[in-house]
């Protein structure tokens, strides 16, 4: 049996890897082909080196507390690079000032990140009743459980940091399933975290929380090292410059039409491309699937990387960076200190900062030209960090369709798509548009899908 994957981002590549490592006489799949529209594989994961700086186009790392991505690194003989201690010092820009996010309950009580009333409101969280509403927004959930101030100062910027999203329009269960599970199971996030921490201590596991946890991790040569290793492993299975335009059913399989006139016959097909591309490809095969996929919005995000001689930066550079709550009305989502998180990202005596703009908050801003984006980044850094010097290095990476948004009806879209897919046995859909946007989510979903595809065909995974 031949299986064809459309899309060579981390979702498609890790799926191909999961399937290839299981190729065996008892496995019904005998041939794997991955079609990638671009002249390079990797999708959003891309690293650029210039003038001694190492810049990430988008992904700057992943959390190491999810087994599948760590297992994948191991299988590819890669050594993950843990972020430095500085990565623990995270700030939020609130009330016109950078304030450090506390790392422990004691530090939380002493910190100035929330007012005394805001802190008191968080302490009331165990007394707030649980609510079952599958369409609840992240903003409503956070205001209900933690109060308005904690929502505006802590949760709103976190939503920008991960999803570049608008919390009023993000489905809390789809975006943060673990948080919702804790509320459902324990009736309170604080009570649930205390119980889980006790259980983890008893079983000898590390600390747990409602948040993602883990340590930010990458590779010495940047995130592209993962893509390079996957390309080596998959070599003959990848076809670059192969853009799928449409797919049709042949009765016993599928025919995929490529740009340029080629056709690929396949028994099984997986769409691992962005949802808006899946929508085009599926237009003739299934209108319902196609229109649901088209309904998943992708705001734009731009990344401006700025390198400075260290002495040009006032104040400490020994930190992860800061996020900006929407209520502050600034033009940037936040700034990361790339060369503090992973010190080899800048030459000695230089600092590499990465400024993010756009997202659901201000998508159009992210599509301005390079000079305008650099001006925005510099003027915001001047106000917030008092950096007045010219950068010694700059790069701009623009993502017109950056991160898929799990809007309030996302669960209904997924249910509709799952049900529509039953009309097309042998056709599967994956990628960051559906069940998790982070790299670890994509790799975990690929591993699960590889097992499902094999067991669906009577094989053993
Ligand atoms: C600015 C930014 C910062 C981020 N930072 C982080 C981070 O620090 N940590 C983290 O975990 N995640 C981060 N993410 C999220 C993460 O990058 C993505 O969720 C993940 O890389 C998506 O992988 P994917 O394979 O699902 O999709 P993509 O990377 O979008 O890959 C899809 C692939 O399909 C190909 N394709 C499209 N159409 C066709 C077609 N018709 N035929 C054939 N091929 C096609 C594309 O060329 C592309 O290669 C970030 C995202 C952005 C935008």
**Total helical elements:** 16
- What is the assigned CATH homologous superfamily of the largest domain? FAD/NAD(P)-binding domain
Most strands sheet: 7 strands, mixed
Distance between the termini: 16 Å
Bound molecule kinds, no repeats: flavin-adenine dinucleotide
The total count of strands amounts to: 20
User: What does the average pLDDT come to?
Assistant: 95
* Residue fraction in strands: 15-25%
Shape: globular
Radius of gyration: 23 Å
Low-confidence stretches: none
Helical content band? 25-40%
Structural class from helices and strands? Answer: alpha/beta
Widest sheet: strand order?
8-7-16-17-18-15-19
Please give a structural write-up.
- With 461 residues, the protein is an alpha/beta fold.
- The protein has three domains: 2-42 and 224-297 and 406-456, FAD/NAD(P)-binding domain (3-Layer(bba) Sandwich), CATH 3.50.50.60; 47-86 and 298-399, Alpha-Beta Complex (Polyamine Oxidase, Chain A, domain 2); 114-202, protoporphyrinogen ix oxidase, domain 3 (Orthogonal Bundle).
- The protein has helices spanning 10-20, 67-75, 105-110, 116-123, 138-146, 148-163, 172-175, 177-186, 189-202, 224-234, 275-282, 287-294, 338-341, 370-385, 410-421, 439-456, and strands at 2-6, 31-35, 47-50, 53-56, 62-63, 81-82, 90-94, 97-100, 216-218, 238-239, 244-249, 254-258, 263-266, 268-271, 301-309, 321-323, 334-337, 350-358, 393-399, 427-429.
- The chain has a seven-stranded mixed β-sheet. Strands 10-2-1-14-20 form a five-stranded parallel β-sheet, with helices on one face.
- The structure holds flavin-adenine dinucleotide.
- Flavin-adenine dinucleotide (FAD) is lined by residues 6-12, 35-38, 43-45, 58-62, 243-244, 272-274, 277, 281, 301, 303, 399, 402-403, 431-432, 437-439, 442.
């Amino acid at each position: 049996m031949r299986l064809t994957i459309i899309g060579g981002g981390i979702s498609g590549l890790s799926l191909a890897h999961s399937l290839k490592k299981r190729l065996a006489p008892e496995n019904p799949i005998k041939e794997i082909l991955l079609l990638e529209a671009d002249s390079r594989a990797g999708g959003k994961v891309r690293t650029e080196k210039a003038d001694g700086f190492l810049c990430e186009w988008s992904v700057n790392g992943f959390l190491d507390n999810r087994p599948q991505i760590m297992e994948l690194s191991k299988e590819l003989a890669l050594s993950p690079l843990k972020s430095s201690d500085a990565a623990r010092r995270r700030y939020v820009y609130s009330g016109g000032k950078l304030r450090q996010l506390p790392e422990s309950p004691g530090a939380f009580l002493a910190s100035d990140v929330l007012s005394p009333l805001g802190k008191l409101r968080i302490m009331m969280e165990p007394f707030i009743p649980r609510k079952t509403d599958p369409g609840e927004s992240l903003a409503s959930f956070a205001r209900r459980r933690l109060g308005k101030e904690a929502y505006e100062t802590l949760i709103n910027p976190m939503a920008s940091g991960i999803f570049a999203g608008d919390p009023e329009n993000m489905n809390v269960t789809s975006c943060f399933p673990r948080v919702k599970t804790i509320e459902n199971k324990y009736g309170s996030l604080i009570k649930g975290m205390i119980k889980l921490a006790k259980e983890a201590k008893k079983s000898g596991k590390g600390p747990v929380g409602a948040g993602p946890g883990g340590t930010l991790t990458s590779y010495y040569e940047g995130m592209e090292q993962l893509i390079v290793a996957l390309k080596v492993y998959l070599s003959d299975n990848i076809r670059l410059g192969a853009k799928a335009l449409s797919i049709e059913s042949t009765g016993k399989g599928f025919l995929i039409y490529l740009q340029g006139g080629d056709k690929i016959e396949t028994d099984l097909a997986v769409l691992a491309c962005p949802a808006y591309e899946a929508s085009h490809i599926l237009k003739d095969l299934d209108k319902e699937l196609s229109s649901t996929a088209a309904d998943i919005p992708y705001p734009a995000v731009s990344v401006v990387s700025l390198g400075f001689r260290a002495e040009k930066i006032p104040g400490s550079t020994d930190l992860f960076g800061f996020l900006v709550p929407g209520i502050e009305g600034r033009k940037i989502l936040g700034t990361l200190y790339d060369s503090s998180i992973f010190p080899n990202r800048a030459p000695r005596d230089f600092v590499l900062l990465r400024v993010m703009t756009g997202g659901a908050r201000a998508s159009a801003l992210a599509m301005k030209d390079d000079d305008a984006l650099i001006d925005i980044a510099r003027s915001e850094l001047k106000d917030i960090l008092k950096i007045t010097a010219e950068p010694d290095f700059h790069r701009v990476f623009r993502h017109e369709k950056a991160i898929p948004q799990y809007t309030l009806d996302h669960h209904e879209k997924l249910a509709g798509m799952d049900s529509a897919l039953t009309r097309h046995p042998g056709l599967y859909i994956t990628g960051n548009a559906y069940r998790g946007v982070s790299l670890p989510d994509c790799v975990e979903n690929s591993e699960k899908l590889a097992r499902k595809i094999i067991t669906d065909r009577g094989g053993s995974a």
